[in-house]
Structure to design on (794 residues):
């Protein structure tokens, strides 16, 4: 390591000058490492120097880290053409050095990069004018540089030999690192480095492959356009040659052309049957149009008589015996803008009588070229032999003839020749990322008979985006590898602390009701302290099991007492009921109201006793079902109408669909009675009790009781279906009940193989829902002591 003399002699009291010297030395080493920058994408480089910067920051403080960043980052000024990446390295070294006594290098560096988007926005985008997408790639790449260096540094500082040598300089967060974090850091680094090396090579190979595919696609499109141009011009030349031969045969003995009407008819036929021709005319030897098709220009002026004698092709065609094609020029005579024509001489032996000319439909060729553009990223240019731009797919309806001479494209075409692929920079800029973003990949194919060249080009940004997606895919893979490494580290850590986990698992099983859960077996090979912990846990579990058995025994005795007491109470209540009926017959009508009140109170006590008896029998599993085939909806109707009719403040809204199935009529009547009476009881101000039954699509029978009473609280969910539980709400004051109705109802429904739930009703009140298989199921198939519950009340 650098500066061993200072480490041994000064330790933690190293002088400022010594720290600066170490920072300078580490910065020089970082600069040397940065000379071997790896280009992962065009204009994007992976640097190794940040490792030395972070070493300086963590061991010697923020000033040493900033100085090391300033020295090692000089290389980036040449690589990237701007100072903002260099300044970023300086700031990273200072930031990590400032937090070294509070956070680990990885955490502090991650915090720095979490804050860095503001820096990149202010410098790369706003000041340097680098596109946002390129800025994102550069930012992610630099963050990866820094985080990888921080991760590597943490692993290096975990090596015992290094820790012994640098102990006075290692900050507290690294000296007090947990075993799990140390294992996770090492495994993460071991997963990332091979992936980074292989992924970098694969990314570069993929970029080369993408370039090859783009070049092949450009060449193919250029060949297609060149063939279309060659075919169109060949057809146009054939058409004008044929018409020239026809007119040559039609010359008078004196060598005079036929009448203008005849010429116009022939020209109309040529234009009509030659889709690649825009217009055509027959010119005199002097270059004056004798007949035109179409006859007039867009303003309605006749075109016959237009003088074209200044055109070069007028002089050239006089010497020709075969058709020729002109270079691009600015048209007139009904066509404005760049124009290419094909023409053929009219001759009889040596006598030259004029020429036939057809203007090539360049917009049609441009439309055909557009069909080869595909996704719109390609640009197709057709260049004549003199460097004139015949047409450009990116410029519709250009009004002047342009030349590519002395442009970057012309220089690139000179290097490529008549056929091949290449690249050129559309703009020259000092910033590497900006310069690379203007890179154009092109393919060129020559049209042999003319010397024209078809150029198909694509911007490098498209290829850049494809590679960037691959790059971000690599980062995603690295992220998955990191997560996998962390999970592996956790698994390894659990193996180390397996005895503690054994105690924890035993405690969880004990909490779930497994009273035989013990931890000694898991900790039998553990150190003494962990073994003692497991033994203590086992003694506690044994004592807890004994206490639970005592509680359960007491509960069974309580259930037995309730059952006996309920049976004993039913006999005098029955006798009391009989005496009331006897007194009703013997006494006069003046005592009827009093006897009715006594009868109601006796009925109420009887119901309470029956509920207590049911609760105790259910707790002792002594209530078998007596199933018969019946219509459950009739039970619901009968009980609901009887209960609501007895309450003057309430009204019943009933919708009953037949629910025929195997049910215990007495017990289901008890469930309906409990739910409807609850709805009445907990709606003390009155209102409508809504009851409906229906058969669900899965074959279950469902009946629902809804009220507009005091409603429910979600926090009462667990206790309201328990025995003797009614909740602790203030609204329950003055409402009678012992809290066993819902418990009994739930157990009866459960024994039918169904489930019962309570939930708040929208707008106020509560809704009780019972769902039972219509054909019934064995009771032992539904022994879950905690059936499905929703919001409830007692």
């Amino acid at each position: 390591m650098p500066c061993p003399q200072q480490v041994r002699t000064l330790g933690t009291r190293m002088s400022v000058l010594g720290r600066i010297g170490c920072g300078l030395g580490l910065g020089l080493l970082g600069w040397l490492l940065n000379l071997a920058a790896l280009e992962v994408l065009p204009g994007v480089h992976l640097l190794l120097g940040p490792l030395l910067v972070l070493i300086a920051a963590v061991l010697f403080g923020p000033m040493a880290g900033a100085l090391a960043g300033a020295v090692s980052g000089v290389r980036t000024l040449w690589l990237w053409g701007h100072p903002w990446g260099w300044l970023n390295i300086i700031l990273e070294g200072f930031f990590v050095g400032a937090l070294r006594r509070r956070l680990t290098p990885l955490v502090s560096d991650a915090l720095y990069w979490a804050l860095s988007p503001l820096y990149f926005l202010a410098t790369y985008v706003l000041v340097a004018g680098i596109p946002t997408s390129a800025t994102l790639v550069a930012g992610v790449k630099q963050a990866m540089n820094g985080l990888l260096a921080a991760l590597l540094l943490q692993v290096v500082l975990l090596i015992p030999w290094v820790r012994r040598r640098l102990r006075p300089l290692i900050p507290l967060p690294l000296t007090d690192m947990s075993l799990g974090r140390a294992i996770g850091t090492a495994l993460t680094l071991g997963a990332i480095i091979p992936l980074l090396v292989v992924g970098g090579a694969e990314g570069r190979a993929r970029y080369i492959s993408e370039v090859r595919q783009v070049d092949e696609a450009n060449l193919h499109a250029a060949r297609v356009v060149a063939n279309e141009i060659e075919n169109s011009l060949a057809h146009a030349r054939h058409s004008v040659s044929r018409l020239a031969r026809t007119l040559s045969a039609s010359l008078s003995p004196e060598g005079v052309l036929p009448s203008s009407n005849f010429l116009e008819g022939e020209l109309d036929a040529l234009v009509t049957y030659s889709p690649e021709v825009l217009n055509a005319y027959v010119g005199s030897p002097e270059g004056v149009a004798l007949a035109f098709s179409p006859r007039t220009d867009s303003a309605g002026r006749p075109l016959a008589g237009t003088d074209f004698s200044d055109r070069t092709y007028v002089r050239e065609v006089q010497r020709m015996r075969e058709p020729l094609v002109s270079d691009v020029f600015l048209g007139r005579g009904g066509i404005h803008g760049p124009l290419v024509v094909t023409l053929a001489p009219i001759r009889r032996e040596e006598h030259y009588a004029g020429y036939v000319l057809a203007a090539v439909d360049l917009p049609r060729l441009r439309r055909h070229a557009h069909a080869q553009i595909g996704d719109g990223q390609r640009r197709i240019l057709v260049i004549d032999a003199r460097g004139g731009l015949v047409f450009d797919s990116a410029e519709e309806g250009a009004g002047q003839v342009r030349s590519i001479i002395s442009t970057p494209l012309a220089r690139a075409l000179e290097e490529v020749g008549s056929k091949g692929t290449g690249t050129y920079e559309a703009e020259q800029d000092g910033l590497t990322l900006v310069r690379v973003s203007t890179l154009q990949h092109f393919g060129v194919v020559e049209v042999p008979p003319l010397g024209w060249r078809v150029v198909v080009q694509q911007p490098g940004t498209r290829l850049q985006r494809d590679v960037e997606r691959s790059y971000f895919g690599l980062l995603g893979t690295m992220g998955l590898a990191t997560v996998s490494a962390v999970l592996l580290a956790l698994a390894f850590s659990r193996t180390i602390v397996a005895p503690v986990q054994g105690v924890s698992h035993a405690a969880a099983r004990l909490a779930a009701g497994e009273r035989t859960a013990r931890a000694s077996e898991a900790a039998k090979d553990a150190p003494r302290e962990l073994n003692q912990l497991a033994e203590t846990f086992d003694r506690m579990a044994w004592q807890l099991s004994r206490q639970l058995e005592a509680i359960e025994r007491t509960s069974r005795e309580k259930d037995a007492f309730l059952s006996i007491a309920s049976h004993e109470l039913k006999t005098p209540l029955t006798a009391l009921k009989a005496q009331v009926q006897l007194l009703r017959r013997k006494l006069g009508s003046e005592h009827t109201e009093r006897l009715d009140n006594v009868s109601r109170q006796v009925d109420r006590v009887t119901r309470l006793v029956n509920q207590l008896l049911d609760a105790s029998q259910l707790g002792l599993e002594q209530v078998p079902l007596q199933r018969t085939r019946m219509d459950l909806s009739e039970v619901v109707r009968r009980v609901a109408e009887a209960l609501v009719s007895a309450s003057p403040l309430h009204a019943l809204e009933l919708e009953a669909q037949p629910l025929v199935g195997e049910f215990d009529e007495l017990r289901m009547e008890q469930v309906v009675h409990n739910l409807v009476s609850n709805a009445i009881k907990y709606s003390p101000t009155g209102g409508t009790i809504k009851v409906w039954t229906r058969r669900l699509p899965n074959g279950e029978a469902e009946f629902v009781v809804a009220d507009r009473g005091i409603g429910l609280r979600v926090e009462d969910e667990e206790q309201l279906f328990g025995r003797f539980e009614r909740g602790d709400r203030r609204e329950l004051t003055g409402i009678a009940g012992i809290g066993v109705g819902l418990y009994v109802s739930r157990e009866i429904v459960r024994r039918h193989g169904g489930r019962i739930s309570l939930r708040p009703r929208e707008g106020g009140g509560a809704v009780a829902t019972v769902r039972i298989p219509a054909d019934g199921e064995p009771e032992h198939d539904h022994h879950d002591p905690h059936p499905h519950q929703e919001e409830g009340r007692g």
Q: What stands out?
A: The radius of gyration is 48 Å.
